[in-house]
């Protein structure tokens, strides 16, 4: 069991991260941004500042379609108003602290600093058939999962919709401009699997989903099925999301099919048990028609037993067929840690057991393992380096 071990990334062996739903108040407000508002709100904001409301449409198209916030690129706007329009609705929200490349330049991980000095990460990954961005929705996280470096930081604050969408705009621009090896590529997929539990930041995340899916000038116009919201299992909010009329993909970080182990691995399981979570996930499928992804990180000798694969298959089959897709995730090998990968043989047996039981199963391609791939690791490492430099 993991509870008798110090959590991943803990500096004090006695550290016990605590589950918390409280969102600490932000220190100051992030500057208002076009992506915080719908098109009508943008027009109103311009009018309130004495600017022509109808320019909101052009400004939005520059932002979402041409992926720019630079006045110099907006030659169809009157020269005398360009700077003012951009200053009003397109302030700088993200400052690059670090960019790390991996997988031969097909993966880039960014560490961003926000207006109040808070830092978050995003990871851009190019695959054969798609280019995916993993975004952060919170700075830190209050869910306290013991295997996750972000969970040890606690929650600093929710990100604004603008701060989430700027991660996407910067990545889309980088990718379209040939910033990943293999030449220019269109950003096709966005997954909320970076720092934070997206459903705790519900209002801003739902607004961000609209900006991702709604066509220009409202948003980027991505396919809803190419957008994934990943949760550790906040059951009432899964149910609320299923009623939003946006058929985005839901991913559930399950990691254990039994409450005994999941209580220790995912502290929020103390509030909503495996059965309630899978019921809500199945109802999400029924309401949206979107097959649910069940994420299962295979951790050596902890959750990778064949009986757990059978139990998982039974739990899924008990609720119907074809509604869920299991993604076993191989962990990075970490010698000496309890959070290390299963052997290939054990992984193969786990996957075969699920497939033989008729459960669609795809082992997830892990990326960025040589650049601190797990959420929160880069932020923690850069902070440690900077502390070390200050004390020199
Ligand atoms: S795994 Fe996800 S939900 Fe759990 S602490 Fe980390 S960021 Fe939060």
UniProtKB/TrEMBL annotation:
One biological process term from GO is:
rRNA base methylation
**Residues that, per the record, bind [4Fe-4S] cluster:** 141, 145, 148
**Swiss-Prot/TrEMBL cofactor(s):** [4Fe-4S] cluster
Q: Which residues form the active site?
A: 121, 375
InterPro entries documented for this protein: Aldolase_TIM, Methyltransferase_A, RNA_MTrfase_RlmN, rRNA_lsu_MTrfase_RlmN/Cfr, rSAM, rSAM_sf
Known EC number: 2.1.1.192
The record's misc note reads: Reaction proceeds by a ping-pong mechanism involving intermediate methylation of a conserved cysteine residue.
Q: What is this protein called?
A: Probable dual-specificity RNA methyltransferase RlmN
Gene name, please?
rlmN
